[in-house]
Amino acid sequence: MAEKDKNGVHAFPYMKPPEQTTWEKISTTFYNKSDNTILGRTGKGWCKLLIFYGLFYIVLGAMFAICMQGLFATLDDTQPSWILDRSLIGTNPGMGFRPLPDRAEEGALIAFNSKDGTTADKYVNLLNVFLKDYMNDSLGTNREPCDFDKRPGEGKVCDVDMKQFMPCTPENGYGYNTSSPCIFLKLNRIFGWVPEYYNDIDNLPSDMPIDLVEHIKKEYAQDKRRANQVWVSCKGEKSVDEENINDGNTPNFEYYPRGFASYYYPFENVKNYLSPLIAVRVLNIKPSILVNIECRAWAKNIIYVGSYRDRRGSVHFELMRD
After folding, report:
1. pTM confidence score
2. Cys staple from 300: which of 196, 244, 288, 293, with CB 3.0 to 4.6 Å?
3. Rounded Cα–Cα distance for residues 56 and 141 (Å)
4. What Å distances lie between residue 3 and 15, 16, 17, CA to CA?
5. DSSP characters for 23-38?
């Protein structure tokens, strides 16, 4: 009940607000003629607000630019800030293989039909894409031929001669039109990493394959410097895999070449650098049988762990020929 004055008249008479349509309510919200406001603020109020936020974001942007400039001042365009033991990558390079299956569900399986050009062409095309830079002689004028007595000069990188991969070449379909396909192996790049080579023929690891030991001895006899390589050996992961790729007295694998040469190391992010490759030809795979293969890199400072959960210093892939 509203209060009354001494004359009995309501002191605060109730006045019903005027009726407004929905459109009038909306238009009044955006612009109210009675108090000359836009969205509840006068022009002076909006001006103050815009000036405040303008200055706020200018200062915020300036602080961000100063912080980024300070960060960039600590970075080097040619090498990471943390390398080798101080980096997350560490000093133990992993191994990779190509061709990689183009579907995730295939995992590490390379399945092909040597009599079906469609499946063979699939892997040929994948390898052609991967080797594009290796086959382009005009890409990079700072590439030069290297050897164990000729390291690359300042600002130069070693070329990779495709002829050393024979018969694993595009002209031969990389072997996918035969029962002996080719797999290309590479070591992951680690800035500044230098391999410690097994180059002493009198102190080779006891678990090193006999055929690799004999190969190292031949290279050493030809030139001691040729023993300065990260060697590679491949095998069937289990005895049943060995049986499925073994063809009598014929070696299961051929390597082109057998090791990653020392003149490609260390990797220092020089423009147009090409990682050294090894083409492994797996001989006479039996049809319709899945074969598990493991390839291992041999260097004194490459830790080898050949387990499925913690695979280091090696790579696993699977082959099946229809």
Report:
1. 0.78
2. 196
3. 51
4. 15, 18, 20
5. HHHHHHHHEETTTTEE
* Cα 192–Cα 270–Cα 216 angle in degrees, nearest 5: 55
* 52 domain-assigned: no
**151 part of a folded domain:** yes
Q: Give the residue from 149, 175, 151, 171 showing the smallest Cα distance to 162.
A: 171
Domain count, the chain: 1
Does residue 155 form part of some domain?
yes
pLDDT per residue as tens digits for the range 140-163:
688 999 999 999 999 999 999 999
What CA–CA distance (Å, rounded) separates 101 from 321? 14
CA angle 182, 183, 187 (to 5 degrees): 150
Q: What are the distances in angstroms from CA 96 to CA 56, 63, 147, 159, 243?
A: 51, 43, 24, 20, 25
Q: In angstroms, rounded to a whole number, what is the distance separating the alpha carbons of residues 188 and 87?
A: 15
CATH number where 171 lies: 2.60.40.1660
- Cα dihedral sign for 297, 300, 302, 303? positive
Entry field: residues in the chain: 322
The domain in which residue 169 lies consists of 84-321
* Chain segment 154-206, per-residue pLDDT in tens: 999 999 999 999 999 999 999 999 989 999 999 999 999 999 999 999 999 99
